[in-house]
Amino acid sequence: MRKWRRSARKRSWKKLSERFRCWRAAMRRHNRRRPVMRNLWNFGMLLCCWGTAWYWAMNYGGRSAWFCFYGAGLLFIYMGVGLWGMARTGRIRLRSDQTRAWSGEALKLDGQLMLGRGWVPSGWLMLEARWSSTVAGHRPIVVREVVRSSLSGTAAFTFHVPALPRGLYVLDHVHLKVSDAFGLLQFSRRATAGAHRLLVLPQPLTPAARPAAGAGDGVPRRTTPAAQQRQAASPFPYGTRPYTPGDPMNRIHWRSTARTGTLRAKETEQPEPDRLLVCVDAAGGRSNAAAFESALRAAGGLALPALQQGLSVRLAANDRQGQVREARGRESLPQLLELLAQLSCDGEHPVAALVQREALQAGAGIVVVTAQPDEQLLRLLCRLRPRAVHLVYIHGEGMPPDAVQVWRRQAGSAGVGFTAVSAARAGRTAEGGEGHGQAADPTAAGA
């Protein structure tokens, strides 16, 4: 009986939701047809007035009757010319197909509206552009601008876009709304705009939490060839593999051999001190979304000084796509910021799995930026501590100070560098680490 009631409730809710969807679709169709119906109503009323004035003038005569007849006729001709000249589909042309800007800064988009020949100047033109973000959870934005018409059929305009959060915004459509000076005619058409993208880059954190690689350096410094040869002579072990005939005896991992019963050899890698791995935690969904924006800014602030020193920076995230990008040199900073701008906080796997996978290809420096550290991550970083590992902890406003101190003590006992960054004051202060003191290059956005 209970199961039958539950199924009946589900069916009723399903029917109600379907009716609501049908009602919304009908309202959308009605809103689209509203200007057309209004124009037809005005045209019909004016036609009736013109016919009434003609009947009055022909049967009763008089100056007033003929004045109304000719006045209604002129308005009738005016509306006919307006219907022919203003009901045209315009074309929008922006100066660039892709525009870059910094998050939190307003920008202007210049363009040109082309209406073609035979255009009749109207009272006003209004452009309504809708931009949708590819980042999950970001709402689309609508920008409106009033344009002055001219006899040439072309008009220049400027979209004043407010400050936007980081992300990739794609132009969905542009609606052109036209009205005459008397408000008798109104048209709403979708203008041809083409494909345009607006890329809003996150501002690198300034001052950011710059992890210390040994004696307080932000990123691993370049080493001399002699130092690289010494490091290559004693590579770091990061795992074991089955023993292969010909391997030296000092490569045998005796503990794994005793545990498995078969010979196991140490798997080693040659460290590359001119590379830096930055792992961003993109898991957690809405619970991690508040601190995720600050984590992206911190990652950008970490990559900036490394690129300025000529290091190769590898940026990896544990989102659903598992995006990874590597760049070298200061001029390649926008490439990493593009990846940060399009990241979504929708990862399903813990950041420890990402660090373990990327550490096989990483160099000497490993930085993990997360708002949800755990014991598994600390144990993994403890095994990787010969590579100058650092943990950047992004904490929110409601986080008690004791929690930050607990993670700092645990990271210190594991031999891992630690920096705590407040999400509320991400752009001003950083606790437990030195700020890199470098502002982002304004020309990197290339707006």
UniProtKB/TrEMBL annotation:
UniProt keywords, alphabetically: Membrane, Transmembrane, Transmembrane helix
Listed transmembrane segments: 39-58, 64-86
Biased composition (Low complexity): 221-233
Origin: domain of life: Bacteria
Region Disordered, annotated ranges: 209-251, 427-447
InterPro entries assigned: DUF58
Residue span, DUF58 domain: 240-348
One Pfam family it belongs to: DUF58
Protein name: DUF58 domain-containing protein
